[in-house]
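Next comes this protein:
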Amino acid sequence: MRTRQILCPTDFSETASHALKYAIEMANLYHVGLRLVHVIDQPVGLDNYQILTVTPDELSEIMETAAAEQMHKLLAELKKDLSVESVIRHGVAHEQILKEAEAAEVGMIVIASHGRTGLSHFLHTNVAEAVANGAKCPVLVVK
């Protein structure tokens, strides 16, 4: 753990930004690099499930371009003395995060939890929980 990168998944939310602060602190403490990953979900349609006005490939390209722009902004805000790599993946979030953790042989994952409870927890996929249960390395879940 102390010699390998820390993986920090981000959806560019405020909660993910909070987790990133912990990841940076851990990376500085152990003098290791930081690896940011953003997962683009497979496009299905608009949020209200209306008919797509663009092809799925076009929508995927638009989503990737937007994610890349957000990732560049995030990287620009980070301290320059920290070694940071970024990756954008496509697919199911927890599966891609776990694949990235294994492929990069990270020492730790620092991930945000949106803190859903009750019916909301039941209806939404809990990415942080799935990552914590499936990871082969330590996972820090930040609220």
Remarks:
- Residues 119-123 have pLDDT under 50 and may be disordered.
- The longest helix spans residues 56-77.
